[in-house]
Amino acid sequence: MPHRPAELQKVIESAAPPDLELLFRPMFGGIGVYGGGRMFCSLSDVGLALKLTGADHEELLKTRGAKALLYEPSMPPSKTYVVVPVAMLKDRKLLRAWLMRSAAAARLAPARKPRKRPHTPARR
Known about the structure:
six-stranded antiparallel sheet, alpha+beta, single chain, globular, Yope Regulator, Chain: A
């Protein structure tokens, strides 16, 4: 069943702790969710996916109904984003705990290096 990113945004807004400053940005037909300047969540027709690593990633993947984020069948599954089970969308307390874990992990992750842009000669 496809999800609606705008409805998932409302779920996030109601479940997030009040001290977590959220920023929502349109992204490839979905919505990227930022906390503390770092993206930690993806809202798309696939569902609500949290960015996690290590033990947290493995723990959420073991939860019944959770799965690695996969936008298209021809693409490989994400190594960092996990789609939360539909049941978790209704459990605000549990979802809040996972949102906090994901946002904290994103804040602690090393900053991404800026992409090098190819040099283009100046036009005259």
